[in-house]
Amino acid sequence: MEAPVKTVTVAVPVLNQLEIGKTSLFCFDKLTSPACQFLLIDNGSEQNYEVFTRKFLSKKWRYVRNDTNTGLLRAIQQAYEACNTDILILTHNDVWVYSSYWDKIIANLFEDIPKLGGAGLFGGKGCGREGHRLGTFGSLIEIDGHGRKMTMPWEPPTCFDGFFMAYSMEMLREASFSRIG
Q: Fewer beta carbons within 10 Å, N or C terminal of the chain?
């Protein structure tokens, strides 16, 4: 019998910048598989992310509001505590995805590479005339008893913009990862 596909939660901590985040959140919402779960952690925004989430995004989104800005580390801790899937993806609200079912690609990485602890996508090799990234790349990190190592060649990026990192919840639990910050 084939093993079940790994499940994914995408957590997006936010603080204001709703106008910038709308495109990112719409892309995540519309281009993921039906099984993907979402967590929007509003870290004391003045803008109303809750109304936006309930009105414009699918029912896959859970909304958590902190009355004040408790900091990014606390928001990441909340994501870790709320995650009930195999993979936790932490991303900013200025990261755009354009591939349908991109979450399945990430899940397949964790299925295909033994002991994969994390996978990240960030930066680019250049900028186009209109300000978009050229040649985006990712990094794969393998966790084993000896620590971390890159499994793909690293190339210095032209710019770092946005943040997207996927983690194995199994790896986090095995590392006794129960408290951040």
A: N
H-state helical runs in the chain: 18-30, 49-56, 72-82, 102-112, 169-174
pLDDT tens, residue by residue, 46-92? 988 999 999 999 899 999 999 999 988 899 889 999 999 999 999 88
Structure-block tokens of residue 153: 């060649």
Return the DSSP state at 46: S
Token pair recorded at residue 123: 């930066």
Distance (Å, whole) CA 94 – CA 92: 5
Q: How many CA atoms lie within 13 A of 39 on its CB side?
A: 24
Whole-model pTM: value is 0.75
Could you give the C-alpha distances from 89 to 6, 120, 155, 165, in angstroms and in order? 13, 9, 23, 6
Sign of CA dihedral 36, 169, 95, 139: negative
H helix runs in 31-71, sequence order: 49-56
Alpha-carbon distance of 91 to 76, in angstroms, equals 10
Q: What is the pLDDT of residue 115?
A: 76
